[in-house]
Amino acid sequence: MSRFSCFSLVFSMVFSLVCFLCLPGSLFLPGPILAAQETVAGITEQEDVNASYFWVVRHADRDGKKDALTKRGFDRAEALRRLAMKMKVDAVYSTDLTRTKLTAKPTANEFKKEILIYRKLTKEWFEEIKKKHASKGVVLIVGHSNTVVPIVRGLGGNLKDKIAENQYGDLFVVKVSQGKTTVSRVQFGN
User: Fold this and answer.
1) Domain boundaries of the chain, sorted by first residue
2) pLDDT tens figures, 139-171
């Protein structure tokens, strides 16, 4: 077998494997995402039953300037639901816009939860949800590119990132336990 034929065969096998693992709807996640999924608290199991876990995400992929999701956005919302299936979801919050509710809907339906609408990010609202959902499971909060970071900060997380207008698929896991807050960032969906 020539060097070129050997290279072609190896390339073909690797390319096929990567395509298979990255198919939309696949339960497999690429390398760094899988590693994060296995090790980040609040992703595959609630390691601390006395902690509160808040999953903060931006709505899934928006359809241009419309208040709607693209096909990829619907796939990403479904990927979020699949990720949450190993958890106990206590509540699902969203703004009153269609794109955030469509992102939250698969997870809310999976756990038979009503989507709770929030309007303003006030100190009182953050105190209320932290108290209401203390040690009860995961609380999913779906926001926007300009509200994700303030939500994480309002829950006590130290986050300096900004979410770009074209950036989707970041899941911020805010863990509150014994007065200490930690934040982990994981990618989900394709």
Assistant:
1) 3-187
2) 999 999 999 999 999 999 998 888 999 999 999
Distances (CA, A) of 138 to 89, 90, 161: 5, 6, 22
Q: How far is CA 16 from CA 1, 7, 29, 105, 156, in A?
A: 21, 14, 15, 33, 43
Q: Which CATH architecture has domain 3-187?
A: 3-Layer(aba) Sandwich (3.40)
Strand 52-58: give its sheet, edge to edge.
115-117, 89-94, 138-143, 52-58, 170-177, 180-187
Q: Alpha-carbon distance 39 to 33, whole Å?
A: 10
Of all residues in the chain, the percent with pLDDT exceeding 70 is 75
Q: Express each pLDDT in 24-71 by its tens digit.
A: 333 333 323 333 343 344 555 556 778 899 999 999 999 999 999 999
Contact 80, 97 (CB under 8 A): no
Phi-psi map region of 142: left, alpha, beta (phi>0 left; psi -120 to 50 alpha): beta
